[in-house]
Every structure is written in structure tokens, then in C-alpha cells.
Model the fold of this input.
Amino acid sequence: MMPRFYLPADSLARAVGADEVALALQNVDLQRTSSRGLYWLEPLLEVDTPQGRIGFGPLTAADVPSLLEALQGDPSAHPLALGLVEELPYLKTQQRLLFARAGITRPLSLDDYRAHGGFEGLNRAVALGGEQTATTVFDSGLRGRGGAAFPAGIKWRTVRATQAAQKYIVCNADEGDSGTFADRMLMEGDPFLLIEGMAIAGITVGANYGYIYVRSEYPQAVATLREALDVARSNGYLGANVGGSGQAFDMEVRVGAGAYICGEETALLDSLEGKRGIVRAKPPIPALQGLFGLPTLVHNVLTLASVPLILAKGAQFYRDYGMGRSLGTMPFQLAGNIRHGGLVERAFGLTLRELVEDYGGGTASGRPLKAAQVGGPLGAWVPPSQFDTPLDYEAFAAIGAMLGHGGVVVADDSLDMARMARFAMQFCAEESCGKCTPCRIGSTRGVEVIDRLLAAPDQSGRDEQVIILKDLCDTLQYGSLCALGGMVSFPVASALKYFPADFGLQASEADQ
Ligand SMILES: Cc1cc2nc3c(=O)[nH]c(=O)nc-3n(C[C@H](O)[C@H](O)[C@H](O)COP(=O)(O)O)c2cc1C
Ligand code: SF4
Done:
């Protein structure tokens, strides 16, 4: 008898040919699942065996006949055979809490979701009641995964304590950072988890409506979420009596229009209100006056999706992962010039070197590593000499870097860091919402200063431009209203500090 086959329907797997492989797999029992996030192996086909699922990848449609033949005899003899998928070191050494179902379940199957722990968190929250649920989130130490790492429990308590007839839950799924894809993977692959997290948040803080604000570049996530919302609603997980709580909560998906700044929470709220996304001054904070001026809990996808497990297993279970004040696990995303790109969920505290070298396998080009940009386009470029820094919010802040949303973009020694510094300023100029002067004007001046620095005919000309550039970075850092202008100095200053030669400078000049 032919065994059951599993193939991801995730958009990255599809982009590299999973649908063609599915078409070639005629007359077999095939389930389209989420992806494991071992992206360098996609399309990764898995086959049930008495020992567990064995994998083959990266597969093309042309490999299918030989694969089916191999399954009649010794599957391990096939050149693309990977053995038991869960024994692959990349996966086996991970600590998958948030992505526990990745690659295993079908995204829109409520049966699969429930068979793998789905809705245990919601049931527990209903049993505990709002006060205890908020306390559990607080005690877990969960911090926002959108970048700022603010303690989630404080926000929950703040919104819960407000007196308002209408409050909102807003999920930030704008995921604009370079090299990131964890939000997309989760929304496409495990949409009920996000819905469950938002429903728990709603009944806990007293909000009866939610929005998921998804970037327009994620059409598959939008379609999957919309279908999942219908399924959840018709099964009583949304609506007038959420999970038997006696409380009402419902939500919808809204699609952004392609602006990086609309990932900033207050610009996002403006955009949701139908306006152009412009950053609002704080205070008032969104927890008190957010969407339409009403109390609003804004969280990243991963923050909200962490909540069901925290409720199901308890705060202490979650706190047992991580280090210092960075508790729980983080789905790091390996991208750029990397051999084994993909998702690595581990407790905070492993080093950047372990991530890039052990999991990532070094550069895809095979050339020496030059740097990794951690935390998106506003993150610092970290040189290999600092790769032993543990992935922990405070440890990264101590080296002038940030973890952000966990994206890691790797570069080999052919990357020109002066070009990357210029790109950062240009990015800021293009994405600036225009509300404050340092960012609106300073970023454009920044591009010009870097151009002058690179064109300077002699040493003294270069020195002069370095002083101006550093002054400008300080002005942007301390004078900007939000982190777009405030943090663009990170990639620029780190490029200048660690790679002065790319700017035609001696080390000592760049360090002045
Ligand atoms: C320029 C800019 C872009 C941002 N983009 C995102 C984003 O794409 N996704 C996200 O979750 N947070 C983003 N943030 C952070 C949000 O402003 C906010 O901190 C987050 O939504 C809060 O959720 P959390 O508590 O779960 O982290 C961005 C911030 C800035 C300044
Ligand atoms: S720093 Fe830039 S993006 Fe942020 S508020 Fe000011 S102008 Fe807008």
C-alpha cells in the first residue's frame, strides 16, 4: 500500500516548485501542510513510515518517478533522501514552542489543530478568567516580538484597566524587516494559533473586536487567514460566545498598501482608520487611546501567537526558556547569503555564531563571512568578532545592536559596507512618513554626505565628511520621533566603525 505523503503549501515552498511536485504526485494520498521552515530543503516531501516521517528534498517534479520507485525498495538509497525529518540536526536541536506544528499539520484543518494542542490555551483562559489570564501573561515574561521588546503583560493590564465601551485588539502583521518571514510562515501555516491568541487577548482585556493588519505582499497569508476566520467563527471560537466564555469577540483582516512605516504601531492605526500612515506622538499610548481614539492592544503576530501555549502550559513553563529578561523562545530567521536559510526557533541565549555557522552553515557563496545585519534594515551590522554575543535583547543592546524581530541577513566579504550604509539612509528617506525634520530631511542629507565621503579626493576631505556624517547620525538618533529616523544610525555607524576600509578610511579615523 502507498503511504501518505506530505508537502508544504507555504508560499516559499510553492515559489520553488512545490505545486509542480504535487501535480507530479498523481494518485497518491497527499496532504498539503505548513512548512517546517527548513527552507533550503524546499520543496521538502515527507512520507509516512512506521519509524516516522522520512524526507526528500529539495525535490523537483522530475525527481518524482525515481522517488516513487525508491519507495518500493530502499528509500534511503534515493539521492535526495534525508532520513527521518525530525532527526535532522537543524530541526532536532531546535526548541519549537511557537512553531511546534510547523510542517506537521494542515493550515486550515481544525481537526489537525485540535489534535495538536489547539484551543487548550483558550479553554484555560476561559476557566481562569480575565484577571488570572493577564497575570499569567505578565508572569511569563513575554516581551513584544515586533522589535521593541516591551513586556506584554504590562500592556495587557493597562488595556484591561481602562473603562471603555469599545476596545480593540490589533495584530501587527506588516512584517517589513529585511530577511524576516516568521509572521508569514505562522499566518500561512498555523492561522488558528494567531486567532486563538487574539481571542484570548480580546476576552482578557475586554475588547470585542480585532484587526489583523497584513502587508499587501502576503496575499496567501491574507487568503488563509480569511478562510480560517470563517472556520473559527462557524465553530464557536469567534462570535457572540467565544469558546464558551460568554464574551463576544470577532475580527477581520485588513491589507496594507506597501509602506514600511505602517509597521510602526501608531502609523498602522492611522492606516487602519483609513488615513495615510503617519506616526503619532506618544503619549497618548495606544493602550489608552489607540484605534479611533479607543483603548487598543497592539501586538506583533508572534507575540499574540505565543499566548495560547503560555496559558496551556503555564507561565513557569515559558520562563524556563531563555536568559536574563529575554524569556521564552525566539524564531530567528536566517536569510541573505547563507547556505541553510530558514527558521530556527530556540530559547534566547544561543550565540549569533551558533545561529549563522552551526545552523546556517556559513555563506551560500562559500566565501568568508563579513557581517550579519540583525533586526531588520535599522539593525546594526555585526562583524564576526562579535558573533559570540548571546541572542538576548540586553546583550545585543550592550554592543550597540538589536534583535528586533529576529531577522538575520548574512553577508560575505564581497559586500561593500559603504554601499549598505548609503542604502540605509536612502531607505529611511524613501520610507520616512515626513512628520519630523531630522528624519525627513536628515536622511536625504545622509545619502549626500556618504556620496561626498566616497567621492572625496583626499584624506582631509574624507575626514570632514565623517565628522558631518557622525553629527547627522546623532541628530537622527536623538531628534527623531520614531525608530525609523532614530535607528537608521545603527547600520550606518556600525558599517563605518567596523568596515572603515570600505569608505576609504583608516580604522582610527572611523573610530574618532
Ligand atoms: C519603522 C518601524 C517599523 C515597524 N514595523 C513593524 C512590523 O512590521 N511589525 C511589527 O510587529 N512591529 C513593527 N514595529 C514595531 C511596532 O511599532 C510596535 O512596537 C509593535 O507592533 C508592538 O507589538 P509587540 O509588543 O508585540 O512587539 C515597527 C516600528 C517602527 C518604528
Ligand atoms: S522618524 Fe521619520 S518615520 Fe518616524 S515620525 Fe519622524 S519622519 Fe516619521
Observations:
- Residues 110-319 form a domain with the Rossmann fold fold (CATH 3.40.50.11540).
- The chain has 22 helices and 16 strands.
